[in-house]
TrEMBL record:
<keyword id="KW-0689">Ribosomal protein</keyword>
<dbReference type="GO" id="GO:0019843">
    <property type="term" value="F:rRNA binding"/>
</dbReference>
<dbReference type="InterPro" id="IPR023674">
    <property type="entry name" value="Ribosomal_uL1-like"/>
</dbReference>
<dbReference type="InterPro" id="IPR023673">
    <property type="entry name" value="Ribosomal_uL1_CS"/>
</dbReference>
<dbReference type="GO" id="GO:0015934">
    <property type="term" value="C:large ribosomal subunit"/>
</dbReference>
<dbReference type="GO" id="GO:0003735">
    <property type="term" value="F:structural constituent of ribosome"/>
</dbReference>
<keyword id="KW-0687">Ribonucleoprotein</keyword>
<dbReference type="GO" id="GO:0000049">
    <property type="term" value="F:tRNA binding"/>
</dbReference>
<dbReference type="InterPro" id="IPR028364">
    <property type="entry name" value="Ribosomal_uL1/biogenesis"/>
</dbReference>
<dbReference type="GO" id="GO:0006412">
    <property type="term" value="P:translation"/>
</dbReference>
<dbReference type="GO" id="GO:0006417">
    <property type="term" value="P:regulation of translation"/>
</dbReference>
<dbReference type="Pfam" id="PF00687">
    <property type="entry name" value="Ribosomal_L1"/>
</dbReference>
<keyword id="KW-0820">tRNA-binding</keyword>
<comment type="similarity">
    <text>Belongs to the universal ribosomal protein uL1 family.</text>
</comment>
<comment type="function">
    <text>Protein L1 is also a translational repressor protein, it controls the translation of the L11 operon by binding to its mRNA.</text>
</comment>
<keyword id="KW-0810">Translation regulation</keyword>
<dbReference type="InterPro" id="IPR005878">
    <property type="entry name" value="Ribosom_uL1_bac-type"/>
</dbReference>
Amino acid sequence: MPKLSKKLKVANAKVDKTKLYPINDAIKLAKETSITKFDSTVEIAFNLNVDPRHADQQIRGAIVLPGGTGKSQKVLVLTKTKAKEAQESGAEFVGAEELIQKIQKDNWFDFDVIVATPEMMAELGKIGKILGPKGLMPNPKTGTVTVDVKKAVDEIKKGKVEYRTDKEGNIHSILGKVSFKEEELLKNYQALIDVIKKAKPAAVKGTYIKNISVTTTMGPGIKVLIEN
C-alpha cells in the first residue's frame, strides 16, 4: 500500500468519511483539501442505479458548463464541406481523410475533441477501435457529429463536457478548477445534476442517484448529500 504524504494525511483528517456534506460545504472542503502546487481540477462522480448493459439505461450526452471548465480544449474538425467555417470558428486542426490517416499511421493525438460532419463518419468508422477506447469518437448525442461546425466548436471552447455511464453505472465529470469561485463550481454542479436527473431512464425504479462524491486531483473524496 503506498505511503500517504504528510499533506494528504492532513487533508484526509479534515474530511469525515462517514458524513454526507451539503454541496456548498463539499465544494468548500474540496478547495481546502487540494494538496497540489498546480491548479487542481475539481471532479465529480455520480453513482446511478442503472444497468448499462441495457441500451435504454445507457446515459450519454453533453452540456456546456455555465462556469466553464478552466481547461482549454484543442479541437480537430474533420470535414469536406465546412473547412472554412471550422477555421473561422477557432478549431486548431481542420482536414479530412489525410488527418484520419495521420491518426492511424502516426499515432497522432495532439487534440482533445473531434468534431466531424456527417460525410466523414464512414471514414472515421475505420479507426473506431483506436478512437473509441480514448473517448474520442464523435457522436450525434454529444453534438460532435454535426453540420453546424461553428456552434459545436463554440460550445467546446466555452466549456462543454461530455458525460456517459461506465460499466458500473458511474458518471465522472469535471466541475472546474480549485481556483474557481465557489459560486462558479456550484453553478456547474447544478447544471450537471439537473441534466442527469432529466435523463433518468423510465425502467429505473426507486432510488436513481445512489451516491455523489467530489474530489480534487490527488485530494480526498468527499461524499455529497443528495437533496431532492
